[in-house]
Amino acid sequence: MIKTLQSHFVEEIYAHAQKTLDNFYTDSIILTTPANDLEVIPAAQYLQPDNLLSILKASPEYQKTQDLRVAASLWNKAYSWIPLPSVLAFMTWAGVGFDASVDNVSFVFKDGELEALWFQDLSRTEIYPERSPIPIPNNYPGKLANSVDELYNAVFTGLFQNHLLPVIDCLHALTKVSKKTLWGNAVNASYGIFEDLDGYAKKEAIQMDYSVLFEQPYSLVLSHSPQQTLRKSNPLYNLIRTEKFNEPGLPTQMKVRKTCCLIALIPPDYSKCGNCPLLKPGDRIARMKKKLAQAH
């Protein structure tokens, strides 16, 4: 009964998000049993080292480079877009602390492509009432966070300590790819959500969460304790920088990665991403102008 009441309320917030936020943030998570035409694989099974190594060796990136580091980084870069943006957006916008631990989520595939996370046990979700967009029922039986630090602890323990960290450790052990590169992929998939949430989430929540995630050298990202003295080194810190422009018709600044995702090592194109640290400012401006011209 407790699980049913809690699940119903969390699903109400999700339905509210479908009407409020960009559908990107709701399409990549599933709260109810996935449809029969979708393939569902428990994350703990999918992320086994032997399975990951098979995936990497079968990837086009590995076929082109014979470099497992490149394959690992680009797999991780794409994969990071599934758990990170939605879980963090719900935390900031609605105070929802989904538990994204590997043992609580399954991956949902459609036509062979990873599309969403299915949260199997919503009773592990924690709510911070001050951020909830809808009133919490008086008889709500689920977990409630008494402070924003408790919310962070709930979200970050599942998402980072019990999910991203073991995946990154595994990829590093399998391929020797730099952990900093992989954490850079995590930042790449998540920093932009805070601009998206402007106008939807409270400004204080946006600023506070962005700072804790990306601007503090020691934070709760990999800490089990909300106590300031026990905060650990933050692996997301200092992995992006701001590049400024003075060009008519272009944005005045953009965020640029400090670590390359390694796509630049793939022949024959050796292409670079728009926010690649290897791209010279003049080349970045030229690319932005070209993209703007194509849009018109």
Overview features:
296 residues; alpha+beta; Transferase(Phosphotransferase), domain 1; 4-stranded mixed β-sheet; 3-stranded mixed β-sheet; 11 strands; globular; 2 iron, 2 sulfur cluster binding; IucA/IucC-like_C; Ferric siderophore reductase C-terminal domain-containing protein; catalytic activity
Instruction: Tell me the number of helical segments per DSSP (H or I, 4 or more residues long).
Output: 12
Low-confidence stretches: none
Question: Quick one: biggest sheet?
Answer: 4 strands, mixed
Class by helix and strand content?
A: alpha+beta
Radius of gyration (Å): 20 Å
Per CATH, the class of the largest domain reads Mainly Alpha
Overall shape: it is globular
CATH architecture descriptor text of the largest domain: Orthogonal Bundle
Order of helices and strands: HHEEHHHHHEEEEEHHHHEEEEH
As for the CATH topology of the largest domain, it is Transferase(Phosphotransferase), domain 1
For the secondary structure, the number of strands is 11
N-C termini distance: 55 Å
> What share of residues are in beta strands?
5-15%
